User: Fold Tc1-like transposase DDE domain-containing protein from Cyprinus carpio carpio.
Amino acid sequence: MTCKNLLSSEKKYFGPLSNSPVLLLCSPGQALLPLFLVQNQSAVSRHLSGKSVGRKKCGKKRCTTRRGDRTLSKIVEKDRFQTLGDLRKQWTEPGVETSRATVHRRVLLNQKQRQKRLTWATEKQHWTVAQWSKVLFSDESKFCMSFGNQGARVWRKTGEKEMPKCLKSSVKYPQSVMVWGAMSAAGVGPLCFIKGRVNAASYQEILEHFMLPSAEKLYGDEDFVFQHDLAPAHSAKTTGKWFTDHGITVLNWPANSPDLNPIENLWDIVKRKLRDARPNTLDELKAAIEASWASITPQQCHRLIAFMPRRIEAVISAKGFPTKY
Assistant:
């Protein structure tokens, strides 16, 4: 006999002697039978067999009070489009102890890619910070006028969907810019604002006019190793020839591994600052990006590079799966 709970699926704890009625739709015959308030089929079985026993509630205790929750609600109502970081900052001012849930990008990795990540990390597990300091890391990132490609978040309750203060005008095709940048333990190089799609030819122009000046600024006459991901323009044969002609060593890199690239942390810093700047035009967006990028200090970059051994250890511990970085 198959039964379906007609009540809410919200999980609650009910003692074994609870005799509050619940309607269960049972087949065949579609009969409605009153039973004890239960959550699933296994709970029914335990109750009928007499094996149901009471137990204390488990799980982590609440770290906030009901009063603190009401305070947060008032903060949200002032501006429904605040970021999670802004809300936490205001909420912790009275002394509420909370932590910000950090959202990490997780990419899908197949078994072959995970194995390559694990092999790569195993090969690099004995690299020192000095060796990682010789690597010039690079990447591209997209910046939109409406921050976050999904637009702004709104904090609202059920039934407030159409309230004017919970609505915000949006642009169907928000303006955006694609940016290329590079960093090392010594700091950051100049940014390149990319126009159009990147192919092998245009990427080699970026290398010529922005990567080489970055290397000159950060390494001078010292040798360095260049890092980039496996994008088609990066792995093209003509691009490989460009590096050979210029005598530049390229670091082999596993696919789908943004968690291994410290420059991702710098992009995140820039994007957080842009949320405060709120540029209204494309020129203002570019200026804000450049200003935020220029404010990144060599000390910040060195700290990120110093954490590279930990990133490697994390990949090995995760057996090639994505890490918290």
User: Anything to note?
Assistant: The chain has three domains: 2-48, 64-103, 111-317. DSSP finds twelve helices and nine strands in the chain.
